[in-house]
C-alpha cells in the first residue's frame, strides 16, 4: 500500500475512530487529541502495517494503547490527597524543596568556563550577556559589528563544548 493510499484509508477510518476516542476520554477536546495522536502514530508506523490485515482493528489497538499510556502518565503526575483529619498533601508540587547542590556545581562550572575564555571572546560575550546591543559593544571596543557577532558566537560555541555535561537530553 502506498503512502497516498494509506493516508486515504486513515482519513476514511478516522470518522469511525472518533466515537471510540470519545468513549475512552469522555471529553471532546481530549478525544480530538487522542484521535490526532493515533493517526500520527499510525502514519509514522505505516511500514509496520501488513497489507491484507484489518486496518480498523490496528487503529483501534493503537488508540487504546495510546490512551492507556497517556492515562498512566497522568496518574503518575497527579497529586494524591490524604483524607485523614490532617488533610496533608502527599506528593504536592506546591512546596517542593530542591537539592541546590546540582545548581551550585553548574554555576561553578559555568563561571570557570567563562573565566577560561580568551579575553577577545569573553569581553564581548559578557557585555552582550549584561544587555549591551551589538552596535554598543562594537562602539565601546572599537571593532566592527561583524567581529562582535563572530566573537560572541565563538564564545557561545566554546562554552557549549565545555558545558556539554549539562546539556538537556
UniProtKB/TrEMBL annotation:
Keywords (alphabetical) are: Sigma factor, Transcription, Transcription regulation
BP-aspect Gene Ontology terms? DNA-templated transcription initiation
Q: InterPro entries from the xrefs?
A: RNA_pol_sigma-70-like (IPR039425), RNA_pol_sigma-70_dom (IPR014284), RNA_pol_sigma70_r2 (IPR007627), RNA_pol_sigma70_r4_t2 (IPR013249), RNA_pol_sigma_r2 (IPR013325), RNA_pol_sigma_r3/r4-like (IPR013324), WH-like_DNA-bd_sf (IPR036388)
Task: Pinpoint the RNA polymerase sigma-70 region domain residues.
Answer: 17-73
Q: Does the keyword Iron apply?
A: no
Molecular functions (GO terms): DNA binding; sigma factor activity
Residue ranges constituting the RNA polymerase sigma factor 70 region 4 type domain according to the UniProt record: 109-159
- Top-level taxon of the source organism: Bacteria
Say which family it is in: Belongs to the sigma-70 factor family. ECF subfamily.
Name of the molecule in the record: RNA polymerase sigma factor sigM
Give the originating organism: Cesiribacter andamanensis AMV16
| Gene name linked to the record | sigM_4
Amino acid at each position: 500500500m502506498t503512502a497516498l493510499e494509506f493516508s486515504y484509508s486513515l482519513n476514511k477510518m478516522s470518522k469511525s475512530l472518533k466515537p471510540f476516542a470519545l468513549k475512552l476520554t469522555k471529553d471532546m477536546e481530549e478525544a480530538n487529541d487522542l484521535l490526532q495522536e493515533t493517526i500520527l502514530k499510525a502514519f509514522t508506523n505505516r511500514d509496520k502495517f501488513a497489507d491484507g490485515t484489518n486496518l480498523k482493528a490496528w487503529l483501534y489497538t493503537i488508540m487504546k494503547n495510546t490512551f492507556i499510556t497517556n492515562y498512566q502518565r497522568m496518574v503518575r503526575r497527579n497529586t494524591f490527597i490524604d483524607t485523614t483529619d490532617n488533610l496533608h498533601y502527599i506528593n504536592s508540587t506546591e512546596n517542593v524543596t530542591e537539592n541546590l547542590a546540582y545548581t551550585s556545581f553548574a554555576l561553578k562550572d559555568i563561571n570557570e568556563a567563562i573565566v577560561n575564555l580568551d579575553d577577545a571572546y569573553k569581553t564581548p560575550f559578557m557585555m552582550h550577556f549584561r544587555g549591551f546591543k551589538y552596535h554598543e559593544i562594537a562602539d565601546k571596543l572599537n571593532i566592527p559589528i561583524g567581529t562582535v557577532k563572530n566573537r560572541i558566537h565563538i564564545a557561545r560555541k566554546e562554552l557549549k563544548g565545555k558545558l556539554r555535561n549539562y546539556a538537556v537530553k
